Amino acid sequence: MQKRLVLDQQQIAITLKRFCYQLIENHDDFENTVILGLQPRGTILLDKIVALLKEISGIEVPSGYLDATFHRDDFRRRDFPLKANETKIDFLVEGKKVILIDDVLYKGRSVRAAMDAMIAFGRPQKVELMVLVDRRLTRDFPIMPDYVGVKVNTLDSQHVIVEWAEQGFPQDAIWITEKDKS
C-alpha cells in the first residue's frame, strides 16, 4: 500500500497550537463556550486541544464526547451493525457556543448526524466546526469547517488516515493512502 505523508508530528503540533490561538481570539474567556469531540476519532483531537488551551490560557473549557451513531442517515443501510461509542456530556448546550471537533471532514454525514445528536442536550446559540483534515471536493452536505488544519484534494478511491501516538503509533501523523480494493 502506497502512503503519502500529509502532516508529520511537528506540523500537527504547530496546527494544534494555531487552533488554540484561533479559539482564544474568537472566544475571549470561553465563558459561554463548550467543546465536543465527535466519537470515535474526534475525541483524541479534543483532548489535545483542551489540554493545550489550559496550558496556553489557564482556562479549562467544558468539554465532552458526542456519539452520533444512531443519528446517521446510513445507520440501517450497512451490511454490519455500527457499534455505538459512549456519549460523555455532563452539561447542557442550551444557549452555548459549541465547537464541534472531528479529525477528518469527508462527506459531511458525521457532522450532520452530530448536529442532530447534539439537540438532545439543548439548542446551542452557535455551532462551529474544527477539523484536522478537510477533504474539500467530496461533500454530500453543504458543511464547511470554521477551523481547518489542512485542506486536501482527494479522490473517492483514497483514504485519509490520522495516526496518534496515544493509539500506539510511533508518532502523530496524517497519511493519504489508496483504499483497499478487496
Describe the structure.
The protein is of the alpha/beta class and 182 residues long. The chain has helices at 9-27, 42-57, 109-118, and strands at residues 3-7, 33-38, 63-66, 97-105, 126-135, 147-152, 158-163, 173-178. The chain has a single domain (9-154), classed as Rossmann fold. It has three helices and eight strands; from the N terminus they run βαβαββαββββ. Helix 1 crosses helix 2 (42-57). The longest helix is centred in the N-terminal third of the chain and has 19 residues, at 9-27. It is an enzyme of class 2 (transferase).
Helical residue percent?
10-25%
Rg of Cα set: 16 Å
The helix/strand series, from N terminus to C terminus, equals EHEHEEHEEEE
- The backbone outline, from C-alpha atoms, is globular
* Unreliable sequence segments: none
What is the makeup of the main sheet?
A: 5 strands, parallel
Can you identify the CATH class?
Answer: Alpha Beta
Terminal Cα span: 13 Å
| SS element count, helices | 3
Can you give the mean pLDDT?
Answer: 90
Strand residue content: 25-35%
What's the architecture in CATH terms?
A: 3-Layer(aba) Sandwich
Structural class call reads: alpha/beta
**Main sheet: which strands, in order across?**
3-2-4-5-6
Count the E strands.
Answer: 8
Whole-number count of domains: 1
CATH topology-level fold name: Rossmann fold
